[in-house]
Design brief:
By secondary structure, the chain is α+β, with helices and mostly antiparallel strands. It folds into two domains: 38 residues; 150 residues, Rieske [2Fe-2S] iron-sulphur domain (Rieske Iron-sulfur Protein), CATH 2.102.10.10. It is built from three helices and nine strands, in the order ααβββαββββββ. Strands 1-9-8 form a three-stranded antiparallel beta sheet, with no helix packed on it. The chain starts with 7 loop residues before the first helix and ends in a 7-residue tail after the last strand.
Length: 193
């Protein structure tokens, strides 16, 4: 067969144009396919760590962050609050936080936190699972902290349960670490990061 009358330039152009259209089409198919490999927002919320910026958190302010479907309280405590914790006359069930199931091993002392001014707690009452309310010292006579509206459990501003409460354990401290002075990572220990 003879190649007389065949325009090779036109043939090359049509071959390249068809290949380009095919590549674009493959890209349109590949992007959603590869995107489906990423975990959904729901799956990430189920167990993924959560970053939180604390730079705009004012003294005495509490913010709720969601981690694993649970509310996490992040509170900036003042120096006066920290002094009140050290000199507290509240009767507490576990003042030294000796129950190791309630906080990572690096959380010790009265403040139950890495940095004394920043408190991080899972906001679920250890009695029957209600969400306690944050109460400032000016709002209640017992010095402030957290009050569970379901059955009246009270926790101080370190999440330690008072003796008169139906709850038997302190509020749980989740694993967390500071990525920088103003950035908090909830859900990971620094060693696991």
């Amino acid at each position: 067969m003879s190649n007389d009358g065949v325009d090779n330039g036109k043939r090359r152009f049509l071959t390249l144009a068809t290949s380009a259209v095919g590549a674009v089409g493959a890209g349109f198919v590949a992007v959603p396919f590869l995107g489906s490999w990423k975990p959904s927002a729901k799956a990430q919320a189920a167990g993924a760590p959560v970053e939180f910026m604390i730079d705009k958190l004012e003294e005495g302010q509490m913010v709720k962050v969601e981690w694993r479907g649970k509310p996490v309280f992040v509170v900036r405590r003042s120096q006066a609050t920290l002094e009140a914790l050290k000199n507290s006359t509240l009767s507490l069930k576990d003042p030294e936080s000796t129950n190791v199931e309630q906080q990572p091993e690096y959380i010790t002392g009265v403040t139950r936190s890495i940095r004394p001014d920043i408190l991080v707690l899972i906001g679920i009452c250890t009695h029957l699972g209600c969400v306690p309310q944050h109460k400032k010292a000016t709002e209640v006579e017992w010095g402030g902290g957290f009050f569970c509206p379901c059955h009246g459990s009270q926790f101080d501003l370190s999440g330690r349960v008072t003796s008169a409460s139906p709850a038997s354990k302190n509020l749980v401290v989740p694993p967390y670490y500071f990525m920088s002075d103003n950035q908090l990572m909830i859900g990971l220990d620094k060693g696991a990061a």
